[in-house]
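subagent[fold] <- orchestrator: predict structure for attached chain, return tokens only, no commentary.
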Amino acid sequence: MNNWQLPEGIDELTGEQAVTFESIRRRLLDLYQSWGYELVVPPMVEYIESLILTSNSVDQKTFKFLDSSSGRMLGVHSD
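subagent[fold] -> orchestrator:
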């Protein structure tokens, strides 16, 4: 029995798949940089009101949890 389970839509890459994915990612980053684009890394977690939850489907796919220091809800982007 495999106890290691991931939510639907979440994949784990290991071994050769991970190496191939990273190689493609790096080549794309280099290509975009050569065209003058700059890298932007958005935050993975934001206050829920900052996320534009345009539909019930997006809202249901957003992982939400409570920020114990502020009492506000946080969300992880569903994409």
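orchestrator: received. Logging for downstream: The two ends are 29 Å apart (CA to CA). The first strand starts at residue 45 and ends at 47.
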